[in-house]
Amino acid sequence: MPVPATDISPFRQRRQRVLEHMRANGGGVAILPTAPQALRNRDADYPYRHDSNFYYLTGFPEPEAWLVLVAGPDGDRSLLFCREKNLEREIWDGYRFGPDAAAEAFGFDQAWPVGELDQRLPALLANQPALYAPLADSTALDRRLRQWLGAARQQARAGHTAPDRQFDLLAVLAEMRLFKDDTELQLLRRAGRISAAGHLRAMRHARPGLREYHIEAELLHAFRYEGSQAVAYNSIVAAGANACVLHYRAGDTELRDGDLLLIDAGAEYDSYAGDITRTFPVNGRYTGPQRTLYDLTVAAQEAAIAATRPGAHWNAPHEAAVRVLAQGMLDSGLLQGSLDGVIESGAYTRFYMHRTGHWLGLDVHDVGGYREDDGQGGRRWRTLQPGMVLTIEPGIYVRPADDVPEAYWNIGIRTEDDAAVTTDGCELLTRDVPVAADEIEAIMRDGRG
Questions:
Q1: Which of 64, 266, 326, 407 could bridge 195 with an S-S bond, Cβ 3.0-4.6 Å?
Q2: Are residues 299 and 377 both part of a single domain?
Q3: Residues β-bridged to residue 41
Q4: Which of 143, 177, 211 is the last residue of a domain?
Q5: DSSP letter string over 280-309?
């Protein structure tokens, strides 16, 4: 029999925070479904993965489930609708909690069969001032919400009212999820360690003559062996010129002597994502031009890490990385002009076209705004605060061109780590796999015996 993956108290506390938010705005009802199952082809499903927001509030892993929170005059209630027990289906598909066991195991006040959703929702909405739900999130959900609100309005002759205000529940949850609690930070650390184990295994096994899919297999082996339930995203394993394609997928390109291999891969652990990128030489030793650009990228990352601290604004790490990278592009002959000039004109984006990070959590590109109100009717970059978790991932990508030194052609490099903002700086969650070129060469040398 499966059990909740973690202590249920964090989920109950998060639900209570939503209820407190609702009550502070006059009360109401919140409705949140989990993700539907998706058919891959014919009668084969994709591996099921619950909705991140739903899981954040419930910890409940099964499909066909709905959370309903009621902040009403009679007090707060946390309700679950889920699949009924079905012993015959459990023979084929595995254990189902059913409403009674789910309510007890996950700390709900009450749980009902999901088949009773249409019957019970109008009564739950009656005489409530507001509805909280994912607004305009999906056509199917919008249709259900209209149906339930319409049924609630039809009770007017019996003296009941329907909610006359609607709020986007996703905005409430995005702000909550931006700040990780202690439980989440522990899970992110574990996801980071598992992800690092995969990158170390890839370094030790890479050699000329193998193909990208061989290295992807080593990553998957390490992730699952270390306890990850899934990859956090499709792994990028890019040999040689493929590393200059930012969202390249692991293919069948051969790893050649003298080429670099860029790996952007992360494990998911109890629904939380790791996200690491490392770039290393297939033969175990960086060439001169490769080492020049690699050390430049590492220096840019170190500058961004130093800028990742409470009180700094979101864009500060990116700005720090850009200054280092742009200067290196000038020093190496990739660009001409002055440092301020190539930054102001954006000339550096020819070789560094993405930003230096993103939020990380239940989703690899996690929710949360990057800007905030400035108090004067405008928007400014968000201020970093303890509990926020982000990636730090500068890179440089050089495609062949007549005005580019040939020694740098087809070199693509990115170095990425996960960082949790602390009271005095940031904690790197993924440094179980090193970034220094000498250390990477030593790992590859030792791994080959």
A1: 266
A2: yes
A3: 44
A4: 177
A5: EETTSS--HHHHHHHHHHHHHHHHHHHH-S
Q: What is the CATH number of the domain that holds 138?
A: 3.40.350.10
pLDDT of residue 6: 62
First to last CA, the chain: 44
Domain boundary among 149, 177, 205: 177
pLDDT at 58 over 80: yes
pTM of the model: 0.96
Count of structural domains within the chain = 2
* pLDDT, tens digit, 9 for 90 and up, residues 364-385: 999 999 999 988 889 999 999 9
Residues 163 and 269 in one domain: no
Q: Provide the residue type at 252 as one letter.
A: D
Assess if residue 1 is contained within a domain.
Answer: no
pLDDT in tens, 263-308: 999 999 999 999 999 999 999 999 999 999 999 999 999 999 999 9
Residue whose tokens read 């439980």: 183
Same domain (yes/no): 113, 155: yes
Answer left, alpha or beta for residue 62, where phi above 0 means left and psi between -120 and 50 means alpha: beta
Asked whether residue 168 falls in the same domain as residue 194, the answer is no
**Contact by Cβ (8 Å): 357, 317:** yes
Q: Find residue 261's DSSP bridge partners.
A: 239, 280
Average pLDDT (150-156) is: 88
How far is the C-alpha of 308 from the C-alpha of 419, rounded, in Å? 8
Do residues 165 and 193 both lie within one domain? Answer: no
Other C-beta atoms closer than 10 Å to the C-beta of 153 total 16
Enzyme catalytic residues: 43, 247, 264, 275, 354, 358, 365, 393, 397, 414, 416
Q: Which residues pair with 69 in a beta bridge?
A: 30, 78
